[in-house]
Amino acid sequence: MALKSIFDSGALRTELEKAGIKTSFIPIIWKYVIQNPNCEFDEIPSLPSAIYPLLQSKFKTCTSTVDTVLESNDNVTTKLLVKLKNGAFVEAVIMRYDSRLGICGGKPRPGGVRATLCVSSQVGCKMACTFCATGSMGFKNNLSSGEIVEQLVHASRICEIRNIVFMGMGEPMNNYTSLVEAVRSMIGYPFLISPRRITISTVGIIPCIKKLHDDLPSVNLAVSLHAPDQKTRCEIMPTASKFSLEQLMEALRVFQQKSQQKIFIEYIMLNGKNDSEEQAHDLAKLLEKFQVVINLIPFNPIGSLSTHSTSTDQGVVKFQQILRGTYNIRTTIRKQMGQDIMGACGQLVVSIPGKGSPEGSSSVPDIEDLIRV
Ligand code: SF4
């Protein structure tokens, strides 16, 4: 039987309960394993004796390994290429943002360097968004909750992680059970990531949006909208045809009513497709009854497979001006980070320097839809 990740909280909890051992030992085990990457289970002090053979026979301290660490020239982005136990690869990206560089009330913001980790939830993705190289890989498999949490474990050994965004490879809501289990682990001891600093990004899987707040209170929701009308939206994201825009907006209304949280709207800027002034007005009218932050994402070309091109800088700024100036909607333009290591928005598809593509799927550079700070 294949050994499971010790960070698969559901499996670990089940085994401990079956053996009549308190699950309150789980945080102690995790803390020791995080602090001692190469440890054996029998080195963990102060556990009941019955726990050691159980851990050794069913679990591993880490089922994934960091194959490659790539540092960006911008000194803010680090990409981890993570090898899973089945031999597949996913990517996790650390972005460090110095909050003191921002301006708040005319003065530099308080704080310091804050790190955000972008995690993957699937190998590949079945959603096939036309701007996304992960989508071009097709779907390979879901990650277990332990494999998701292990990305945080690996990243935490590089720097302290403050924020988590589920914007790496895969549609997290298509792996909902593992997503919920992983987030609950990240919120708990010893990780203690505030749920308000965790953001789940989705193309709009309505049944999951409806239950997200009940399952994970205070966690943020980001929605890849990308167009103010259903026809254009479906051209950019073919799977959006499954749910009408009206159904999506109603699900967002209910989410916001229950959570009282602002919703992040992701909008990739595609030249001549969704970036006209008229579309900016339509987008604002669609969202005017919501509390949202719109994040305009300059498109990263992903090679010959891409049928899209990047909006002009002036076009992006004009779009932002309409949303902000005319409708007073908070709108940011995502800063590009880590393009040289394919860690920027829309660039997460696994590539191993000097090894070609382990998925054998494409010569396309990596991609996925990345972060806000
Ligand atoms: S943007 Fe996200 S949901 Fe769409 S294909 Fe890429 S990974 Fe999947």
TrEMBL record:
Its cofactor is [4Fe-4S] cluster. The keyword Methyltransferase applies. It is found in: Cytoplasm. GO terms for biological process: rRNA base methylation; tRNA methylation. It comes from the Eukaryota. InterPro entries: Aldolase_TIM (IPR013785), Methyltransferase_A (IPR040072), RNA_MTrfase_RlmN (IPR027492), rRNA_lsu_MTrfase_RlmN/Cfr (IPR004383), rSAM (IPR007197), rSAM_sf (IPR058240). Its main location: cytoplasm. The keyword Iron applies. One of its GO terms (molecular function) is RNA methyltransferase activity. Keywords: 4Fe-4S, Cytoplasm, Iron, Iron-sulfur, Metal-binding, Methyltransferase, rRNA processing, S-adenosyl-L-methionine, Transferase. Residues 111-340 form the Radical SAM core domain. GO terms for cellular component: cytoplasm. Signal peptide: none annotated. Residues 354-373 are annotated as: Disordered. This is Radical SAM core domain-containing protein.
